[in-house]
């Protein structure tokens, strides 16, 4: 960056008081009094500076005197080479209360010293005796989106040193680099940040097998602590157990939608890295706060050894949301004079999870207490995990296939050598860098490519983090200081939803996908539909029965093979329609033949007295959650007096 060119001598004075032209004659200017102290303040935005992105410096003052003229000199020095990369002088006087701003177009990666010096410009000299005030600030500019290895048990790294993500093997579809000691060895792939160091230990201890981990560093401090944590604790612990660890760090990726900010957690970029660095064909991706049930890897191997899976079968591992009372977490200890970590786990069994599920201490992710299935109790949020058919899983001893619904995002084992997805061994679509529809995108790609979802009995994951996220634990165990809480994860229903909507509506996939539930709207699962024949016919009155309000209705023109969802919206009597209020959802599984369907929709009886405007939407089940209003095929509105 360079200073702006000076104005020609004949140019009129600048109207801005921040950079008024110097008075070269010295007429009317007096020296700054020695007894008066001045201060200069320096601020840099953004707080975390990454190379090739703009930086704004702000310089302000205190103690300027009437009749004096001052020169502000700002320099930025590349510390390692002592090279001046920015230098600019400006003149200020009393009354220039607004901070001076300096816009620097870009930075090199490295450590920099920023110095702001305030000179008394009476003598028009930049001498030490003319310095009125000075301040300095150290900053570190990190190269954007760099990837580097932290640990490789195999010694077969995909690249050397530190390179940008865009130039790395992860940025393209790569083939699996696998040569496991046993063909049915399974690697767990996961992603983490430095503040979840203890959570990762807990997950690894319950898994008990090889792992591939992609870390994200949001600052130079994160990079430093991650390197130390992996080198001194995590890596040696894996080696002591004779298990393999592959670990790569991704650092400070800028947010393309807002270049002055970094991505808080580029989730699918990290997932793609973790899956890519695994050294086995069989991989199981799971989030870092998921505990595996006992002997889960043995259950997986038994299924593959029994050749009960076809090449295009994905082995789904059911997942649950835990609570503060269950499951138990591992006990992690570390000696004062050694880097050796000792981890003790407690049993996590199928019998336990069923017992806690019955008592509502555990539930299906994203759902309230109790059982949710397509065939019985349903909610539009059920698309994410309920298709796993948890009621059947609790009874089954053999693998079973389930129906895919757009949005389904289970954790599953995939054989990368048989994976046909366009992102290769990395599996995940790295365009999804914000939270929302990121994991669902891989489920849709699999279904569109004709893969089946087959559920593993006798094993599961359960989400747990609670006290393990306490910063004091990581500080005590690994000397990792508390990190600021990041909240700008990106809106879940904009970036990711738009990307997946574009994928779902691609016409080149028409009729090529595999789903036992067809669709009128989603090209991959489309069945020809005559929407003009659809009829939604609710009765004019609500029934009261066994503590419920019942809407009786008939449906005509439903297409065999297509799944539907009925959404009931009942705003409170005082509210405007469709702004707020109660929502209920009911799934209709595909019919074998065209027929009139009679349904009773049960609503809670706590709807208070008044005049209710109730709207019923008949939606395409495959499009209802993702496409929202665009998933509605027909609708009806009735007024009911309660």
A few lines on this structure:
Helices cover 15% and strands 31% of the residues.
Low-confidence stretches: 1-25
Integer-rounded radius of gyration: 31 Å
Q: What would the principal axes of the Cα set say about the shape?
A: globular
Strand content: 25-35%
Trace the largest sheet across and list its strands.
10-9-13-12-11-16-23-18-24-22
Output the structural class. Answer: alpha+beta
* Cα distance spanning the termini: 71 Å
Largest sheet: 10 strands, mixed
Which features does this protein show?
642 residues; alpha+beta; 33 strands; ten-stranded mixed β-sheet; globular; five-stranded mixed β-sheet
Can you put this structure into words, describing what you see?
With 642 residues, the protein is an alpha+beta fold. It contains ten helices and 33 strands. α2 links the parallel β12 (211-217) and β13. It is globular, with a radius of gyration of 31 Å.
List the helices and strands and how they pair.
Blueprint: E1 39-45, E2 49-50, E3 55-62, E4 69-78, E5 83-93, E6 100-104, E7 110-120, E8 131-142, E9 146-152, E10 162-164, E11 186-193, H1 197-207, E12 211-217, H2 220-240, E13 245-251, E14 254-255, E15 258-262, H3 267-277, E16 282-285, E17 290-292, H4 296-305, E18 313-317, E19 319-321, E20 331-334, E21 341-344, H5 350-358, H6 390-393, E22 400-402, E23 411-415, H7 440-448, E24 452-455, E25 461-463, H8 471-478, H9 495-504, E26 535-538, E27 543-545, E28 548-556, E29 564-570, E30 582-588, E31 597-604, E32 611-620, H10 624-627, E33 632-641
Parallel strand pairs: 2-8, 11-12, 11-16, 12-13, 18-24, 19-25
Antiparallel strand pairs: 1-3, 3-6, 4-5, 4-7, 7-8, 9-10, 9-13, 14-15, 16-23, 17-25, 18-23, 20-21, 22-24, 26-28, 27-28, 28-31, 29-30, 29-32, 32-33
């Amino acid at each position: 960056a360079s200073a702006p060119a000076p104005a020609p001598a004949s140019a009129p004075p600048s109207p801005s008081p921040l950079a008024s032209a110097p008075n070269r004659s010295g007429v009317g200017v007096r020296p700054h009094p020695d007894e008066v102290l001045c201060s200069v303040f320096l601020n840099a935005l953004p707080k975390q500076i990454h190379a090739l992105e703009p930086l704004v410096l702000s310089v302000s003052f205190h103690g300027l005197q009437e009749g004096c003229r001052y020169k502000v000199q700002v320099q930025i020095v590349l510390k390692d080479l002592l090279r001046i990369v920015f230098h600019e002088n400006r003149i200020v006087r009393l009354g220039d209360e607004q901070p001076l701003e300096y816009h620097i177009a870009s930075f090199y990666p490295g450590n920099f010293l920023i110095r702001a010096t305030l000179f008394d410009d009476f003598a028009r000299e930049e001498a030490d005796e003319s310095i009125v005030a000075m301040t300095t600030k150290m900053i570190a500019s990190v190269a954007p989106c760099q990837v580097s290895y932290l640990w490789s048990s195999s010694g077969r790294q995909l690249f050397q040193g530190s390179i940008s993500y865009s130039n790395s093997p992860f940025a393209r579809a790569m083939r699996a680099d696998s040569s496991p000691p046993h063909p049915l060895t399974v690697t767990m792939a996961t992603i983490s940040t430095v503040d979840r160091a203890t959570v990762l230990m807990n997950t690894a201890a319950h898994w008990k097998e090889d792992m591939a981990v992609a870390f994200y560093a949001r600052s130079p401090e994160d990079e430093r602590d991650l390197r130390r944590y992996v080198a001194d604790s995590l890596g040696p612990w894996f080696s002591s157990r004779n298990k393999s660890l592959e670990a790569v760090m991704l650092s400070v990726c800028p947010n393309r939608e807002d270049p002055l900010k970094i991505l808080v957690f580029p989730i699918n970029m990290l997932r793609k890295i973790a899956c890519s660095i695994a050294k086995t064909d069989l991989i199981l991706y799971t989030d870092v706060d998921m505990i595996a049930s006992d002997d889960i890897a043995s259950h997986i191997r038994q299924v593959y050894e029994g050749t009960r899976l076809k090449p295009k079968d994905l082995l789904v591992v059911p997942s649950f949301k835990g609570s503060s009372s269950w499951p138990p977490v591992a006990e992690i200890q570390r000696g004062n004079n050694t880097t050796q970590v000792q981890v003790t786990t407690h049993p996590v069994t199928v019998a336990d999870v069923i017992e806690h599920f019955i008592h509502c201490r555990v539930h299906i992710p994203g759902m309230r207490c109790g059982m949710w299935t397509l065939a019985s109790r349903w909610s539009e949020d059920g698309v994410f995990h309920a298709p796993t058919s948890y009621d059947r899983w609790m009874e089954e001893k053999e693998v079973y296939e389930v129906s895919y619904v757009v949005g389904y995002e289970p954790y599953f084992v995939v054989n990368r050598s048989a994976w046909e997805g366009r992102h290769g061994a990395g599996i995940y679509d790295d365009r999804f860098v914000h939270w929302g529809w990121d994991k669902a995108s891989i489920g849709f790609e699999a279904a569109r490519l004709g893969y089946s979802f087959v559920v593993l009995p006798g094993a599961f994951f359960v989400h747990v983090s609670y006290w393990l996220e306490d910063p004091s634990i990581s500080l005590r165990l690994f000397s990792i200081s508390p990190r600021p809480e990041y909240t700008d994860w990106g809106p879940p229903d904009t970036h990711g939803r738009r990307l997946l909507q574009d994928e779902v509506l691609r016409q080149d996939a028409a009729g090529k996908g595999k789903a036992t539930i067809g669709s009128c709207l989603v090209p991959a699962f489309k069945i020809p539909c005559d929407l003009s024949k659809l009829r939604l016919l609710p009765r004019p009155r609500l029934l009261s029965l066994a503590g419920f309000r019942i809407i009786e209705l008939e449906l005509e023109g439903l297409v065999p093979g297509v799944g539907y969802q009925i959404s009931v919206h009942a705003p409170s009597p005082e509210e405007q329609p469709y702004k707020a209020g109660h929502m209920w959802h009911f799934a209709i599984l595909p019919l074998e033949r065209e027929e009139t369907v009679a349904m009773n929709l049960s609503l809670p009886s706590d709807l208070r007295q008044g005049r209710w405007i109730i709207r019923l939407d008949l939606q395409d089940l495959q499009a209802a959650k993702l496409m929202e209003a665009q998933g509605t095929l027909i609708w009806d509105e009735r007024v009911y007096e309660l």
